Structure formats: C-alpha cells, structure tokens
Amino acid sequence: MIGRSRRSRSEAAPPPGGRRSADPSTGPGPRRPPGRRHAPSRSLGTVAAQVFLLQVIVVLVLVAAAATALVLQSRYDAQNDARQRVLAAAEAFAHAPGTAAALRSPDPTPLLQPSAVQAQTGSGVDFVSVMNTKGVRLADNDPQLVGTHAQDVSRAVAGETFIDTFHGKPSDAVRAVVPVTDPSGRVVGVVQAGIQIQTLGHLLDQQVPMLLGAAALALALATAGTALVSRRLRRQTHGLGPAEMTRMYEHHDAVLHAVREGVLIVGADGRLLLANDEARRLLHLPPDADQRHVTELGLGPELTRLLVAGEIASDRVCPAGDRLLAVNTRRTAPYGDVPGLVASFRDTTELQALSGRAEVARGRLTLLYEAGVRIGTTLDVRHTAQELAEVAVPRLADVVTVELLESVLQGEEPTGAVHRMRRTAVRGSRPDTPLQPVGDLIRFVVADTPMVAALRRGKAVLVPDLHRAGDWRAQDPEGARRVLESGIHSLITVPLRARGVVLGMVNFWRGSGTPRFEEEDVAVAEELGARAAVAIDNARRYSREHAMAVTLQRNLLPRDLPEQDALEVAWRYLPAQSGVGGDWFDVIPLPGFRVALVVGDVVGHGLHAAVTMGRLRTAVLNFSSLDLPPEELLGHLDEMVGRLDTQAAGDGEGSMVTGATCLYAIYDPVGGRCTLSRAGHVAPAVVDPAGRVTFPELPLSPPLGVGGHPFEAGELELPEGSRLVLFTDGLVEDRRRDIDEGLRMLASAVGHADQTPEETCRALMETMLPDRPSDDVALLVARTRLLDPSCVAVWDVPFDAAAVSRVRAEVSRRLQEWQLEESSFATELILSELLTNAIRYGAPPVRVRMLLGRTLVCEVSDGSNTSPRLRRAASTDEGGRGLFLVSQFAERWGTRYVAHGKVIWAEQTLGTAPELDSAALLDQMAW
User: Fold this and answer.
1) Across-strand partners of 163?
2) Which of 315, 484, 842, 916 is the right S-S partner for 862, CB 3.0 to 4.6 Å?
C-alpha cells in the first residue's frame, strides 16, 4: 500500500530539478541495505532533539513556578495559622475565670504574672501580656516589660477584639488583642498574645529546603519522562530530519490523493483515520468525516458491517448510494504498530445491470426460503392454503386463488375426480377481487382452459396475456370480462401434486401496474406449488389421524361419572396443543360404598398414547373388580406394562409403554379414610373444610413398567367436606414455570372454604392453563362425605355356630329400625349362609357389618384367607348350595382381602325384590 515502502532514505526519489539533499546520508556512496533503519541522530537538527529541548525548558519553567507558588502558599499558611493561634490564646486567657477579678484587685501583677507565663508556655505563642485600661503592662512572660506601656491597644480598650501585624518594640509580631470585661460588661483590662515575625521566618526556612528538594525531584522525573518521550519520538521518526520528513509526507500525500482508487484507513476502534480524495468522492463522505466512527458516515449496512467487523475481503461488491464498489480490505498488522484496517474501493457501476438481475434472482430465492418457513406452520389444510396465498402476494402475484378437492378438505385420500374443487383461499393486494370467493365450488368442464391443461399435463401453464387468450374465457365469459376490466392481465396456473396425486390447484394473477409473467416466474410458481402441496398433504394426513385419535380417545375416556354417595366429584380433561394424549382419569364404585379414584399419564401424544391409555384404563377397571388394595393393584398393573414392553421389544413394531404414571386412591366413607398409592405420579392436593391446602408426603414408587420395586401405600384421614384434588403434571408444569411454582399457584387457586368441586375445577382451568397448553391435563376433584353412623351396624360374633341365630335376630331388629322389613327374609338368609361358612371354614375373629345407603350391604369378615367359590352341587352332595342361594337373593356379592383375613359381602337393591331363577332354586333345594 501507499506509504508502506521499507526503502531507506537514500532510495527516495530526488526532488524536482534532479538534485538530492545535501545530507551526507543521501549523497554518493554506498547505500544502506533495504529494511535497515537510520541510526538515531542526537544533534539539535533532528525533530526529536528540538522537541526534547523545548520540553526541558517548559518543565523548568513549570517547576520554578510551582516552587514559587509553594513558598508563597507556605508563608500564607504560616501567617494564617499564627493569627488563629494567637487569637485563641488571647481569648482563652481573657475569658479565663479570675482574670477580670485579678484586674480589679489592688495589686494584680502577683496574681496575673504566673498565669501569663503558664499560658504562653502552654499555647505555644511567643508572648502573653496583660494590660490595664491605660495600656500599662501588669503581667508579661518577660518580667522586664511589666510596667511599660503597650502600643496601639486603644481599640481593645474600647471593647473591640482585633488581630494585626505589629511593627515596633520590643519585636515585630503577629498579635491578637482581646478586651477583658467584668460581669457588667465594662472593660477592665486587655490581654495581648503574639508570635514574633522572626519565628515565622524560622519555620519557613525549615520548609524551603523540603520544597526545593521536591521541586528538584519533580524536575528530574519530568526530565526523565521527556527523555523517554523524545526517545520514543526518535524511534517513530527513525531519526529523520525535518526536511526528510517533509519530503516523505509530500510524496506520500501526492501518491495517496493522485490514484484513481479510494483508500480508507480505519482504526481499531472503528474510527476513520484517513480518506483520500477518491474515497471521499465515491462514498460521499462529509467534510468532517475524520475521526468519526464508520457507523456515522452513512456508508450503507453492508459496507459498514464489513469495516466494523474488520473482515478480510477481496473484490467484494457492496452498494454505496447509486454505485457498486469492489472493496478490498486488509489489516494493518503486522505492517504497522497500531492495529487497524485499510480498505480500497474501485467503482464498478458498469456491473449494475448484472447486479440487478442478480437481485431479482436473490429475491426469488428469498421468496422460496420464506415459503419454506411460512407455509405449513400449522397442520391445518385451510390455513396452509391461506399461507400459500399470503406468501405469494405481492412478491410474485397481485392475486392468488387456491382450490382443493373436497376429499382433501375432509382429511380423506384424494380421489380421481379432479374437475370439481372447492375454493379454499383468496388473497389480493386490493380488497376488491373479481374472482369467486372462498367456499364456491369450482368446476373445470371446458377442456381448452389453462386450468384443465395444467391438470392434464401435471405441470404449470403460463398465460402471459389474458386479453389475447380466448380459451380461458370459454367456461365463464361474464366472469372473464370482469377479471379483465379489473386490470388482471397475466396468469400462471399450477396443479398441487403430492406423492403423484393431485390435491388441488393454485392460480397466480397479475394486474395493472405489474409486468407480465415470464418463463422465469413459472419455475418459482411451480416450486411454491410443490412446497405447498407437501404441506397440504401433511396437514390432510394429520387431520385424518387426529380425527381418528380424537374419536378413539372419546370412546376410551369416561363419558359420565357413575352414581355413588361417598364423593361429590367434578372433572376436566383438556388435550394438548399438539392433539390428544395419554392422560386419563376414572371414578370406580367399590363394594361397601367405597370409591376408587384414578389419575394416570402416558408420555407422548397421538394414537399410540391414546391406545396405551385405553389399555391401562381397562386394566385398572379389571383389577379394581378384584377389590385389591391400591399397592397390589399398581403391582399387577406394573407387571402388565412390563409384559407389553417385552412384546413391543420382541416384535420391533410397537412403542414402549414405560413412562406411564398412575395414582390410585380408595376412599371409605364409613371412617373417612383414604388409602393412596402412586407410581411415579405427582402427589394430590388436600383441602380441608377450612380451606387450608396441603400436599401430603405419600410413598413414591417408580413409573409403571420399571419393575423390581414394590409399591407402597399411604393413608389419609379426611374430615367430611374435605376436597381431594388429583391431577396430571400438565396442570402445574409448563415451559414458562417449574413444578414448584405451579404447585404454589394451585394452592392459591383452591385454598378457599366452601368451594364446590365444580368451582374448584373452573378456578384451576382459568388460573393455571393458557389457551393452548403444551401438555394434556386431567383433573379430578372429589369432596368427601361420611356415611351416617346410624346407617352402620357392627356385631362381633363368637366363633360358635350357636351365635348365628342371635346375630340373625339382632340384624332383623335393625332392619325393622331402618324400615326394611321387606328385605328381612333375603337378608337373614344371606347372613346365615355367610356367617355359617365363616364359622365353619374360617378363623376368628368373626364380625358382621351392615351398611345402609342407596343399597343394603351385608359384610361378614373372619381371620382366614381362604376364599369361598360358587359351584353347582351334585344331587348326591349334602352341602355346597349356600353361595348359590346368596347369589340368587343378592344383587352382587364378592370377597375382598384385608390385612388380617377377608371380607365376604353381599349387596341388595332397596325397594325391589330379586328376580329368582325358581327352577334352579328348586333344583338346588331338592336335596
């Protein structure tokens, strides 16, 4: 670059006239090798020496001025300090207790003389004198002065305190004169304290050497700094003299500004250091461009970014106003000591036409890129068609219409009948479009139209001038006339094809003020149509699968809650934004008026999650019919999931179920006890009748399918009116918050007394969830009820068959109290059979419990784990017919196991007699 030559001074061009400098270094003789620097010159002829001498003189003057200022300041400070000290000493003595009384005494000198000497010694002043109102010294630290007259104290006698510099005998001094007054305010004497001028001079003499030493040190440091600066300057100038530097600058400046190429030098901080005339002309730089940041010069975004980033570029074309510049950039390092960037510019405006065509191509590529990003953002067929129209207007066309087959709009497979389509999207640069609106049925019945030709050929058809083309008017002459009158003059029609099947058609129209379509536009239109067709087909297939998943899930989830008296239940299910998922809930009535509550979550969305959810829900329903404890039920469910995962891994086609969670709870309204067990599921919230919210610490087991871990259960005592809130993690966990924050929000939403389950569900939906949640949400809220104690009867039965009749009689009396005489016969028969079996085949203790609710339940428990089974007895058997009679008279019966033994129960419907199989009953009783 210009100015980067490493030639020695002897190789510099001679000045005009052909003569060289008289400097010996430039005269005849051997030249220095290239790249060798000049030895630093120390004569006063060099710039470095002149600068050094000037700086030394300036430093001497500054140091002398500073020393003088310090001496004057020290003198001023000493005098000011002396004035303060003498005033303090004089006032302290004048106002001391006893001074005024001593002055009024007949002989004050003996009283005041010791005090004056002591005050002078303690205050550090040179003298302290006490005078009467006539100015006669009554006491002084110099006894020889006692009795003499003091000068110029009349102002103090008049009652004024003053400080002055005294010149006279006995010595020149800075003194303070203070009047002494009696209690009535009358001046009875004067106190004078002072410091001699020679004392101040002595103190100043002690400070002057220190000041002069500091000045000498400053001069030495300044001289050393100046020497370092001069040495640095000599290194920068390479020892050149003023004439040589002037000549070098003139050559550099002439070459820099004479070339027809713009040159910029930018510093490391992004500021402009140098710009030649050509650069100012090409870039239209302002006159004050030097030292301004390149972002403030209006160079255009691309060129500015290139200069700020400091990138290395070669012949990069950048726009600058109405010009196109070829830019070359290089870093100054390692060619210079200061980092920066050098940029050169060449005017390449002749490439503007070529650049214009490149801009058009880039615009088309940008359009296709935006189409790939904006088309198909949602899996909705109609919305995807509208996105296609929005992308193309006005970048490619003034009006765009999209027609799709009816089967495609309904999510079905496209049929071969492509001559009937439904207009799905219309987009125009103006609101008034003469084309048919959305929803109209479009028929392609005339074979010569461009649309039919495009469908037949399977590729785009261009009609550059609609005024000259008559085939497209044949189907609808009146509509064609309105289109031409609106200014539309050019058309490209493209069939939408995916997987070799036609889904619909898109038409691109251009109107007045826009040039006609060209062949280059056809390729862009076909590419847009191809991308849109794939997105529409994906949306169609998703719509079909989504409809299937929704239908499946609606059939798998509970449609209504069963009738029961133990809990008041409300529920909500909200699918995720991406579609149906695997969350489910259930309410299952159990014997003894107990109710099971279930909430589960299968990871994922779609058909697989919905099918897996249905399988798990069905399994829970089946296992609950066995009346198993919650932990045992989850254990069986875990084994089932493990078998399903093994099968899926074996055939390589199914998906693993592992990742499902479940919470199973059984509520007993007799005692208000709730037993819960959970497999990887979030704990429920418990709201007591007062509105206090807790999250009980329940045993947590791994998710279903992990295996190898036993399940545990926890128990809760729930007062009547408590609310149990069971939910999946989609309610409390979201991308915008963690689960802890979600639990705090849930507690705040449900923590209100007297809130019904329905109100609780509504509050949680409004508070916790956005419009379109990212995960499924299943919510189940149950408010507890307790069975009336008067509807519960319990008897402990001795392990003796003779006690059966007594218990039967007591049960009969209780049925009379409950006004259920019509059920006495059947109940006594059921009780006799169950109780006799318990005593005969079971183990103590034996207990009978009767529960009255919407049905009548009879329970007989014993300490044995053997379970009776129903069988048909042979004609020769003497027994085995008891459970058959129980099944005939009871609506339902069964067995459940408890911690110590089993319970056999039978349930009868109130108000209706059981329908007995008389033939079978007589057959069983014939023995």
Assistant:
1) 176
2) 842
pLDDT band at 33; cut points 50, 70, 90:
very low
* pLDDT tens digits, one per residue of 38-60: 444 445 555 656 666 777 787 77
Tokens of 707: 């295996």
The C-alpha atoms of residue 382 and residue 439 are separated, in whole angstroms, by 11
Cα 380 to Cα 384, 501, 578, 721: the distances in Å are: 6, 19, 12, 46
Most confident of 342-356, 652-666, 740-754: 740-754
Query: So what's the pLDDT on residue 676?
Result: 96
φ, ψ for residue 312, nearest 5 deg: -90, 120
Residues above pLDDT 90, as percent of the chain: 19
| Greatest distance between any 2 Cα atoms in the chain | 162
- HSE at residue 551, side-chain half, CA atoms within 13 A, is 6
User: What is the C-alpha to C-alpha distance for residues 82 and 194, in angstroms, rounded to an integer?
Assistant: 8
The C-alpha atoms of residue 571 and residue 590 are separated, in whole angstroms, by: 19
pLDDT tens column, 375-431: 888 888 899 999 998 988 888 889 999 999 888 888 888 876 778 889 999 998 887
Class of the CATH domain delimited by 566-784? alpha beta
Q: pLDDT for 326-358, tens place per residue?
A: 888 888 876 656 678 888 888 776 655 555 566
**Residue 792 is inside which H or E element, if any?**
strand 792-797
The owner of tokens 């002595």 is 202
Return the higher-pLDDT residue of 707 and 850: 850
Superfamily of domain 255-353, CATH level 4: PAS domain (3.30.450.20)
| CA angle (781 as vertex; 778, 787 as ends), nearest 5 | 145
CA atoms of 889 and 910, how far apart (whole Å): 12
Q: Has residue 452 got a pLDDT over 50?
A: yes
Please determine, for residue 914, whether its predicted confidence score (pLDDT) is greater than 60: no
Same fold, 255-353 and 789-926: no
**Spatial separation of the C-alpha atoms in residues 517 and 527, rounded to whole Å:** 15
Q: Which residue has the higher pLDDT, 655 or 830?
A: 830
| 789-926: CATH class | alpha beta
The DSSP symbol for 762 reads H
CB atoms within 10 A of CB 146: 17
Q: In 314-449, where does DSSP find H-type helix? A: 352-374, 381-392, 406-409
d(CA 382, CA 147): 124
How far apart are alpha carbons 396 and 506 in whole angstroms?
A: 13
Contacts of 134 (CB under 8 A, 6+ apart): 149
Q: How far apart are CA 278 and CA 258, in angstroms?
A: 8
- In this predicted structure, the answer to whether residue 17 has a pLDDT above a threshold of 50 is no
CA 383, chain centre distance (Å): 30
Question: What band does 194 get if pLDDT is binned at 50, 70 and 90?
Answer: confident
CATH fold group of domain 376-547: Beta-Lactamase (3.30.450)
Query: Which token pair is 813?
Result: 């009396």
Q: Provide the CA 75 distance to its chain's centre, in angstroms.
A: 68
Does residue 744 or residue 212 have the better pLDDT?
744
In one-letter notation, the amino acid at residue 437 is: P
Query: Domain ranges in the chain?
Result: 89-199, 255-353, 376-547, 566-784, 789-926
CA angle 25, 26, 29 (to 5 degrees): 80
Alpha-carbon separation of residue 647 from 656, 709, 872 (angstroms): 9, 21, 39
Which residues neighbour 519 within 8 Å (Cβ) at sequence distance 6 or greater?
Answer: 462
Q: What is the side-by-side strand order in the sheet with 313-320?
A: 272-275, 262-267, 340-347, 323-331, 313-320
Q: Name the pTM for this structure.
A: 0.53
Q: Which residues, other chains included, contact 549 with Cβ-Cβ below 8 Å and sequence gap of 6+? A: 579, 580, 606, 607, 610
3-class DSSP state of 608: helix
* Distance (Å, whole) CA 177 – CA 94: 10
**How far is Cα 604 from Cα 583, in angstroms, rounded to an integer?**
9
CATH topology of domain 89-199: Beta-Lactamase (3.30.450)
